[in-house]
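Entry type: protein chain
Record version: 2
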Amino acid sequence: MNLKSLAKDTAIYGLSSIVGRFLNYLLVILHTRVIPMESGGYGIVSNLYAWTALLLAFLTFGMETTFFRFSNKEAENPDKVYSTALKMVGSVGVVFLLVVFCFLRPISSFLGYELHPEYIGCFAIITALDAFQAILYTRLRQQRRPLKFMSLKMAFIFASILLNLFVFLVLPKFFGRYPGLEEAYVRYDYGVGFIFLINLICTTLITFAFVPEMKILSIRFDSALCRKMLKYTWPLLLMSVVGMMNQVADKILLPQLMPGQDGRVQLGVYGACVKIAMIMSMLVQAFRYAYEPIVFGESKGKANDRTLADGMKWFIIFSILAFLAVIFYLPLLKHIIGSGYWEGLDVVPVVMLAELFMGIYFNLSFWYKLTDQTWWGAIINAVAVAVMIAVNVIFVPKIGYWACAWGGFAGYGVAMLMSWFIGQKKYPIAYDVKRIGAFVGLGLSLWVISMFALKNVGDIWKMAIETLFLALYCYFIWKEIKTDKV
């Protein structure tokens, strides 16, 4: 593949993801201001979107990667592979919807939404459509059509933002004139139900935009190809589900371990504050988008050890920079969420460190990807999930959402350490531990000084001094770049 073309496509995909996540922060600002913290409404949002992410892993069952793998086989027809994948995912989605709507009330009651089964029905349709769209988006990537990919992603986000602004800023002006409108607003948890309805509308509209890509469904279903694809995809399903559990299990478990209104309130606070911590992952995402194609593009998948070592070093260096920036400017960044949710801001550093561990694990994971030992990934992820769930089950009833933060920290920490020790035996890489350690030590030192020496300094002066700390850290990055001649 032409490297210039690869870089361009990567930039477009990365832009759609990063800009999309940034624009979604506008909704966080809006929702955490209009949904009262004590109502627990934002906890419902966090909980149901966590369920959606987990169920999406089941409904796509690794078929995106499987489609790429089989469409590049010389013996297979890419159109037939695409049609088969689309029909399989679509069929699973239909079965899923039939099961959910046949048992809607029992499922709603089990999840704690017996008063609002419509929430569960709405999310079932959204999840099934998202799974179907996942294959449609994969087709665009396979055909090297990043512009349509980005256009549809951005269309969904802008439509969602505009409808949310209308519902939460415009409609309330008519409450006095139309009392029934205000009653509906309160009945659906201060507009939470409208958030889900907006998502359903936007998802449905984007599905219609894929009509040209769905015409290929006329190709006859190939049962033999289906069996081969299912045989290949089931380990990917396991890895995908376990990996997603690492990301969302805390938001699923908290309301179950702390049932009732208090649990939803705590989840709302935690979910809002986690959005601030996700700024770090958003910044790091750009690095990952550029780095992964380079690793897999070298020597037909046999990455140079120097590339892996340098990638790890620079990943950690810039991740620490992002970590410090968020911590130092938290007095400004906290305004992303409503003031009612600020009580949970102390978890932000813990959640960000968990994200850093996850990023390091991502870099370390290339050893089993490049040696085709992906089953190690399933084992490591399973252990990490077990640790995280154990921390949540034991401590959520005692310390609430803090257990969710420390559970992620412990789970990703275990995954990082396991991948390091096993990887150095299976595929040893000479990582520059000395230089990495120096930057980690510098970053931690600046953070500790900020926490203790500047504890009683006013926010303005504190941020001014911390800006100098960031400048110092950037100076050492510049020196490292000159030394490496990057």
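Comment: Residues 299-303 have pLDDT under 50 and may be disordered.
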